[in-house]
Amino acid sequence: MNSVPRAPEDLVRALAAAGIRDERLLEAVRTTPRAEFVPAGDVAAAYRDEPVAIGEGQVTTQPSLSAMMIEGLGLDGSEHVLEIGTGLGFQTALLARLAADVVSIEMRPDLARQARGNLARQRVRNVELRVGDGSGGVPDRAPYDAVVVSAAFPEVPAPLIAQVRPSGRLVQPIGRGGHERVVCFVRTASGLEQRRILTAARFVRLQGRYGFPQDDEGPP
Mind telling me which InterPro entries this protein's record contains (predicted)? Predict the structure, then answer.
C-alpha cells in the first residue's frame, strides 16, 4: 500500500527531485505548512506535489511549478515583489520568507479573504494583500524588483512591464490557458528580454482589463 505524504519534508523531497536547488526556497517550503493553505477537505493532499482546487474555478499552482517560478526570480532577500494571483496564499507566504516584502493582488474577494486569514495565522506580516484586477498590476507600489504572474496570457501585459524595475525579473506563463511556456524575463532599457523558458505547464487564464474577459475562464 502506498504511503500518503503527510509532512512538509515530503514536499521538500518532491521539489528537490523536480530540480529545485535553492536552499533558502527549500527551507521556506519546509517551514511553511501547506496544509494551512488548502481547503479543509484537501489537507490529506497538502504535501503531495499536485495542485488543489480552491473554488471559483481556480486551483493552486502545483508546488514544484510554483517553486520553479520563484527560483526563476533569483531572490536574495532584499526584493520588493509583486505577485499576481494570491489564491489561498501558500506561494505568497513562500515569497514573503524569501523577499523583503510582497504586494499580492487577487481578483476574487472570497479567496483574498481566506488568504489573508491563512497568512495571519502563520504570522506572515510583510505582505500587502489587495483585491482587484491583477492584469494591471499595482502601480502605486511600483517599481518592483520581481514580479510573478500565476495565470496565463499570450504576452506580458504592458502595465506589468512598466512596473518592473530596470534589471528586475518577471516570470509568467505565456499562452492562452491550458498549455503554456513559463518564461523568465529581465527588464532592460528597451523593455523585457526573455532569458529562459523554465518549463511547460497548464495554467488558468489571466483575467482582467489587460487579460482575458472576466467570464472567459477556459481554454479555447
Answer: PCMT, SAM-dependent_MTases_sf
DSSP for 118-132, written as a single string: HHHHTT--SEEEEES
Q: Which residue has the cell 511549478?
A: 65
HSE (side-chain half, CA atoms, 13 Å) at 193: 9
The three three-digit cell numbers of residue 165, written as one number: 524595475
Strand partners, 146: 81, 169
d(CA 155, CA 131) in angstroms, rounded, equals 23
User: 63: cis peptide before it, omega within 30°?
Assistant: no
In whole angstroms, what separates CA 145 from the centre of its chain?
Answer: 15
Contacting residues for 216 by C-beta, under 8 A, at least 6 apart: 205, 207
* The predicted structure's pLDDT at residue 57: 82
SS3 for 102?
strand
Q: pTM of this prediction?
A: 0.93
Cα gap 36→53, rounded to integer Å: 14
Nearby residues of 163 by Cβ (< 8 Å), 6 or more positions away: 82, 137, 138, 139, 142, 143, 144, 147
| C-alpha neighbours within 13 Å on the C-beta side of residue 65 | 23
Q: What is the DSSP letter of 61?
A: P
pLDDT at res. 56: 83
More confident residue, 33 or 217: 33
